[in-house]
Write a structure and sequence with these properties.
Blueprint (H helix, E strand, L loop, with lengths): L1 H25 L10 H65 L3 H10 L4 H4 L9 H23 L9 H27 L1
Helix pairs in contact: 1-2
Length: 191
Amino acid sequence: MGSQQLERGLQASVKIFEFAKGKLGSVDEGDECRVTREEMLAIKKAAAAMNRALGALVREAHESENRLTLELHMLRGIMKREHTDREANRARVFELFRRYSSDTDEAALAASVSTGASSSTANGNPLNAPSASAMAIDKALTSLERIEQSMRDISPVGRVDIHGAGLLAAKERRDALVVAATALGGANSSG
């Protein structure tokens, strides 16, 4: 429909342009130009056709713009609802994961409160999903715990959660005793 209206408007415009060009070409610069009634009616008819075509094109453009604006608002509403649903589902899944992944909910809650976790993970509201940084920290802590557990599993010396200062102090005492025993043993064998 739009291309037909455009074609009609352009044809009417060409008709008026050609008429004016022909009349101006037949008279000199200072002379007057005579236009008959039939010629004026033809110009009026062409101008009306141009106006109709232009009006139809403008109406069509406005209708298209209004339709697209309405579709845009509808899509925004749909996307907002989808985002809300996705966030609610994410929060539910996170809450279920939090409940079932820890051995005791009280210990996990106490640990998260004592380490200064954000309020969205510390309270029991399932609609408060964790932030990306909180999830990254949780993932890093989980990885660290897995590494420590793996080291405990393959460690031939037993526990690895003893503080190093105690081990060093015990080694120094043992080394001192070994040196003293060697010195005593060496003194007994020489005498």
